[in-house]
Amino acid sequence: MTIRILPAEVAAKIAAGEVVERPASVVKELIENAIDAGATEIRIEVRQGGRRLVRVADNGCGIPAAEVELAFARHSTSKLTGVDDLARIVTLGFRGEALASIAAVSHLTVLTRVADEPVGSHLRLEGGSLVSREGRGCPVGTVVTVENLFYNVPARLKFLRSEATERRHIDRLITRYAMAYPTLRFSVTHNGRLTFQSTGSGQLYDVLIKVYGLDVAKQMLPIHGPPASGADGETTPPGTPGQEPLVSGYVSAPAMNRANRDHITFFINGRWVRDRMLAYAVEQAYHTLLPVGRHPLAVLRVDLDPAEVDVNVHPTKSEVKFLHRDRVFAAVQKAVRRTLVDQSPIPEMESRPGQWTAAGWERRQTLTAVGRERLPTQLALDAQRTGEFPPLMPAPQAGDKLPPLRVLGQVARTYIIAEGPAGLYLIDQHAAHERILYEQFMAQQEQVTSQTLLEPMTLELTPAQAAIMEEQLPVLTRLGFTIEPFGGNTYLVRAVPTVLVGADLRQALIGIVDELAESRMPPLAREREKRVIASVCKQAAIKAGQVLSNEELRELIRQLEATAMPRTCPHGRPTMIHLSQAQLEREFGRR
Ligand code: ADP
Ligand code: MG
Question: What percent of the chain has pLDDT over 70?
Answer without folding.
Answer: 87
